[in-house]
Specification:
By secondary structure, the chain is of the alpha/beta class. It has one domain: Alpha-Beta Barrel (TIM Barrel), CATH 3.20.20.150. It has helices at residues 15-24, 48-61, 79-99, 126-146, 163-173, 193-207, 235-244, 261-276; strands at 2-6, 29-32, 64-69, 103-106, 149-152, 178-182, 211-216, 218-219, 225-226, 250-253. Strand 6 (178-182), helix 6 and strand 7 (211-216) form a beta-alpha-beta unit. The longest helix is centred in the N-terminal third of the chain and has 21 residues, at 79-99. It is globular and about 45 Å long.
């Protein structure tokens, strides 16, 4: 596995400045965010020069672009907001290969009109599922046009809130352009160590052949998110199960401060090396 980090962890508004910091902290790849190019995270257009600057910085630093973030609220109750998000997705998709990747990351959103990361009871309704599927049909047309892949991350507060629903999404479309961004810390809030391991194993068993990108953050014992290695998640177990599934892609850490990046890189590299030595 190649170790990466959210590019937005680091300050800077040029790709070279941001990727240089990622390299210095010990990372081989990033999940890029367009804010690191000094524009909106969800721009309505991306110039050729802006896209090519990302690939040039990647070549200069040796830091690969594993994916680009393109998350918007796919089930926002305001259709105008939803269309605006889709236009931004299309702009990022148009520049993705110039930036050096084919993978755009997404979350499915929430029916909450103010916060796409906040749970809403409507998220589990048949209507929300149908709205989401309709949005995916539109995104797949964009993906076909630009030859890119949709990396969908299950989130507890979103429509796709579990590994089981992620599997349902994959089976509903049966399209290899829809793949999964897997984060074990999104599978639970507070669980026993034994139950955590069961959830991770079951999820990877369900989704393993469709995982395009793996994430690395953590949970504290009270359910709050935490920096990888500082919480209750058993990383040796997680990475061993991921390795056994055949995953050989990037492991992208996030939810940390820039001053934690070096320590997290050391921690995760040691866990990756231990797992790969048993291959």
């Amino acid at each position: 596995m190649k170790l990466g980090i959210f590019a937005k962890t680091f300050a800077g508004n040029t790709p070279l400045a941001v990727l240089s910091q990622a390299r210095s902290a010990g990372y081989e790849s990033v999940q890029y965010n367009m804010a690191c190019s000094g524009i909106s995270s969800l721009p309505l257009e991306i110039s050729e020069e802006t896209a090519e600057a990302v690939q040039a910085a990647s070549a200069e630093t040796g830091v690969a672009i594993a994916a680009v973030s393109a998350t918007y609220n796919m089930v926002h109750p305001d259709l105008t907001e939803r269309e605006k998000g889709r236009r931004s997705f299309a702009a990022i998709a148009a520049g993705a290969t110039r930036m050096g990747t084919r993978l755009l990351t997404l979350c499915t959103g929430s029916c909450d009109p103010q916060d796409q990361w906040r749970y809403h009871p409507g998220n589990s309704s048949p209507a929300a599922w149908e709205e989401m599927c309709g949005e995916f049909r539109l995104l797949l047309a964009i993906a076909d046009r630009h030859d890119i892949v949709l990396g969908v991350e299950p989130e507890l507060a979103n429509v796709i809130s579990s590994a089981q629903l992620a599997r349902k999404l994959l089976d509903t479309f049966g399209n290899d352009r829809i793949q999964i961004v897997f984060d074990p810390a999104n599978l639970f809030e507070v669980e026993t160590p034994e139950r955590q391991k069961e959830l991770v194993e079951n999820a990877i068993d369900l989704l393993g052949d469709s995982i395009a990108l793996a994430h690395a953050k953590d949970r504290l014992s009270d359910g709050r998110f935490a920096t990888a290695g500082t919480g209750v998640l058993d990383y040796s177990h997680y990475l061993a199960v991921l390795e056994k599934s055949g995953y050989r892609g990037d492991l992208i850490t996030h939810g940390l401060a820039a001053n934690e990046a070096v320590g997290v890189a050391v921690f995760l590299k040691s866990r990756i090396a231990a797992v790969e030595s048993c291959r």
